[in-house]
Amino acid sequence: MSTSSIDDKDITRELWQSRLPICFILSDEDMSKVNRSESPEPLYLMLSRHSYFPCIIEKIFRYYSTYYKGNLNDQTNSINLNNLWLEYESIPLKWHYPIGLLYDLYTSSLSSSSSVSHLPWQIIVHLSKFPENELIRFPDIESIEAHYMTTLKEADALKHKGQIIGDMQKRDHKQLWNSLLQDKYEAFWNINIKLMSYTDNLQYFRYIPFRIYILDKPFMQKLFSPYDIEQNKWMTLYDLLQYTLNHEVQCEKLANEKKILNNNIENYRVIIHGVQPPLHSPIQWLSEYFSYPDNFLHICLIENQMR
Amino acid sequence: MEWKQKIFNQLQERNRQERDVYAEIVKHYNRLTENYSTILVRCTDQERDILTLRQENTDLQKNSVSVAGLPVNDKIKTLENDYMKAKDEILTLLRERGDMTKEVISLSRLVKERDEKLYSEQNRNQILTKENVSLRQRLESAEDQLSALKKVNETIHDEFQALQLAYTQLEERQKELDATIAVLRQRMTEKIEKKCNALDEEVKLHEKRMEEDVKRKLEEAKSDFMTSTLSNLMTSTTASITHLRNANQDGKVHLTPTTDFMKVIIPKKAIVKWDCGDNELHAIQFHPSGSLIATGGSDRKIHIWELNAHNNQVQQVYVLTGNNSTVTAIDFDNENANLILGCSEDFACRVWGLGDQRLRHTLTGHGAKVFCAKFVTATLIASGSQDRTLKLWDLQNRQCVRTLFAGSKCHDLVAHDASGSLISGHFDKKIRFWDARNDSTKCELQLQAAVTSLSINREKQLLLACSRDDTLKLIELRENRVIQTFSHDDFKVASDTIKAVLSPDCAYACAGGNDGSVFIWNTTNGKIEKVLNKEHSSIVNAVAWHPEGRFIASCEKQRRAILWGE
Fold it and tell me: What's the predicted TM-score (pTM) here?
């Protein structure tokens, strides 16, 4: 079988080398406040899918602030780093989601045209009028690092009851985050490989860390074991989705929700990392090699358009 | 695992769409924007610069405009006047400066000359002071020398005077001594005359008595026919005279006979024959007094025999030992007559004292048999050896003082004078005359055959050389020339060490032949005088003439020594 030649390392390397072309355009009202003769050109960047927007927020602000040189010293003016926010198709983008997740979730479902190509992803940069009620201000890098570490610990708690992450030293945590920032594949996976090991004499994780995102809904996260002991078989992606959707519908029904979720998997496209993996893929393998750097499987369910 | 493959393919496709297509474009776009922004910056800077320059320009124009208001011509004139004045001033100042520099140059030249003069004067001054100092020193030293010389002169003068006095004294004494000597001599001659007269009278008396005896005995002998007793009586008379003479000596043989008592006769027959030891005899020699004979031979001993002239007996007095091999030659010293020198084939010469028969010295140093040795003086001995050298030995230091390299075996040597000049005869047919001052031969005389012996007369004028061509040669020493050659049909020189001797008055030459005969030649005419044969039975090795000339002693190889006389 030719598929045996595919090494798991090839897949993780391909994942790591993901890039999205993003075009940052200044908003119209901010454009009018530019006090230079030239208007700023759009900023094009190739960003990694598993990175976070706060990592490049300094860069974006530095680029646009050159056009507001005179106004920055004016305190009454609202052009400052704290007021910077990003928007796509009128949706303010959440800071703590990985860029790839945001792209998959919003472009697939909100495209006005039916064509596939949404690239380069055009994001509008706002420097004023921060939407207070929709978005949390998230200005510096240390905060995103803390968020990353928290997510990582949560994942390990699900997988190994937190044993492995607790045994690791602080410099290993630092190395994970820094290699993520500096795009160092080898350094990252040197530490990450420890988090993918097994404990308690199990050949699999205790529970799979995953979140399922559907548009306009908060994400879904359940306890799910990758191996069924009674039936003595490995769980697949299909099993996980089915279980989660059913469980969610039950919760909705209990809560007397008006609109019940459609739990037919046929109606959805399953997207992880921008690709649609086969539904019979073993979930244990996906968790080990197909997770995001924060060790979670962020799965997007996109409803198929009604024809 | 086709799900893996599917996932991988989808990932590759995704990357291709999302990344590969846009990566290059975004990079180039970013670069363009950077360039654009830098150009903008430069543009703004340049605009700023232009603005400032324009500002400056307008400022300058304003300034220039403000100045142009004043009347120009007057200003120009005044300026021109000022300028001309300044120029003139400058010219005069320059001229003055030129003059000043000229003065400076000349003055400096003067200064230099003065300095040089001063310097040379100083040098001269130094030299003169140095000369002065040195002259003073010389003067002092000369004065010192003068005073010293004066002192020395005085002392010498004093000494001279003292010596003069002493000399005059000694002169007087000498005169006195001469007078006394003359007186004593006269007395002595008178006494000797008296003695002679007394002796003559005694002799006469004795003769008278003897005549009476003879007459008596003749009468007695008329009955006997013993005519031979006459001759015995005749010889005993002469023997009694020598006995009287010998009675002067008190056992120690000191006196050497003067030429007054010498009376050389040709011996006619053998008087005494005796055997020495039991060996070959190589050397025989008379003591200068004539009363002792020394023989030496292969028994390694020197036998001293006393000659009793009364009864013509020869008695052995003592034997000198010490040699380790055959004795080749013997010599007595002529000055004090109490040392005997024997050289032997054990490479050494030995000196004994005659009075105490004690071995005084052993002179070693030769490398081969010593053939001959002679006393030059009582303390200087010359020896010649088979090792082709001659050595001079000093008895006081007991050392060899000179070594003469002759180049050929030395068979015999004689001392020419007391300073050490020698004459030696060699195997290579040469007679060498040696100089006393250096180690070289003064002269060499070539003969026809090897020289076996040399004999010199007392006045050192004639040299007799015996050579292997069976001849004897008489050499006159003033011109080193052979004046006579002696030979005889029966005379054969048998070995390299046959000795020939001159008689004490040089009238005769004597040598022994290999058939046992002793030959005597007359030196004046070179003819044979006598042949004494039938007594020796083998080669006659050596002959010696009695110092008074009355006897000849000869020794032969077969241990027999014979004394020949009247």
Answer: 0.44
